[in-house]
Amino acid sequence: MAHSVKFRKVGKFGRLLDRLLDTSMFHVQCCLSSNQIYKDVARSLLDQGPHIEDVRYDSYRLRSACLGSRFSEAHIEAVQLLIDRNTRSVVEPEQIFNGDVPKSCVLKPSQSFKTLYRRGFTFLERVGALGLGAVTSESPVPAEEIDREQAFFALTALTHFLADIERHEESVKQTLNGMLKEDEIRVIMANHLLAQLSSSRRFFISEDVEYKSTMCPCRMKHCNDITEYQRAGLGSVHLWYGFPDLVLNPTDKHNISCPVIFSQSAHELEMEAEIEDICEEERQQNKFRYLSPQCIAQAVTFSVYKSVKCRSKSPISDVTLVPTIAMTPEWFDVWLYDSKYDVLLRNSGDPIPLWWPSPRGVSFDKLRLSSVLQLWMLLNYNIFGTKISLRNEAINSCQLQERIGRERMTLICEDIGVKSSFRVPRVDELNDGDVEHVDILEGGEL
Questions:
Q1: Could you tell me the pTM of the whole model?
Q2: E strand or H helix at 49
Q3: Could you give the CA distance from residue 404 to residue 76 in angstroms, rounded to a whole number?
Q4: What angle do the packed helices 406-415 and 292-311 form, to 10 degrees?
Q5: Which of 43, 164, 404, 428 is least surrounded by CB atoms within 10 angstroms?
Q6: For 13-66, how does the pLDDT look when each residue is reduced to its tens digit (9 = 90+)?
Q7: Residue 72: Cβ-neighbour burial (10 angstroms; 0-12, 13-18, 19+)
Q8: Are 246 and 203 in contact (CB under 8 A)?
């Protein structure tokens, strides 16, 4: 139903749609229907499709790991899953390097982002065609369709963010100047990017940070965002455990929905060995990827936790592939783990960039709308995620659960949860020969 809109708001949406459509010929009338706004936003987001077509997620498997440690102290060796085309057996990277298996005979299983989040793109297509009719339709909801009400809340949050994107960009750009503390950076990115894209717009930050600010440190005019801190640890001492840097969409402090790992900037990370003969950007990306063991530990733990939580709900969600996001102010990685099928994925190639460079290439200019769209769907994976479709060789390809064993997985599922502290058991308190740390060795031996 059409309604009168204040001129300032019309101008704001006009700038939004003008930027989305990348044309100065677009004008917004002083009287707009919400229906048309949502249609235009959905269609314009779908136009970002070409920038997402090549975004794929590779399968990874664990060759070795040590259980029972904090996320930040996790020792994990993961390699990309490689399959021999002829024998359908797993290929070790060394076999290719040594010439034992020709590269032409190797398959690298992967999934496209548009396949993994098919429900989200289908929803945008429906909104682009029907507007709010895609939400208010009284027709039965097919099994493959999403919760329309929750999807509408998520789309509304995204629309409001895009309408005010210039202000949020100015705040987030402050994280790039190297002048802010790491804790200040995570607050700004949470307030002005991540929380803006989540359906509830709620979040909290780990209480164990050095710097706390109840108000957003961006110091931008009209920013009155308040930061909430909580001590909410996640995990099990029989798997991995720790305190996520940031949690989005929490229903309460006992129900974590989407954790985020932050790094102030890739150049702040130190590696054990120096990387020579590469450009500065590649050097920073490699150092960022040095966080991979922590990301994997948290992604696996979060997914197992979510699967345990879902068992008490009816009907059980069919979205079992859940994300953990690792971010710097410049780019982000996404690790997805499916505890039902024991599948681990990560975005292919380099980390996903957040920004378009300025025309002269000397600084960052504007947020990439394709990256914003991906973050929006990832943060709202409960709404837009799709039941994963796998080839036989991809099922159990992470090779984690079969090495852990059914008995220990049962112990993990009984213990895992959101806690304020973790009591690491003494060796003599454990039964059946269990020890505090369990090494997973090559070949699957414990």
A1: 0.83
A2: helix 49-52
A3: 14
A4: 80
A5: 428
A6: 445 544 444 433 333 333 345 778 888 888 888 888 777 877 899 999 999 898
A7: middle
A8: yes
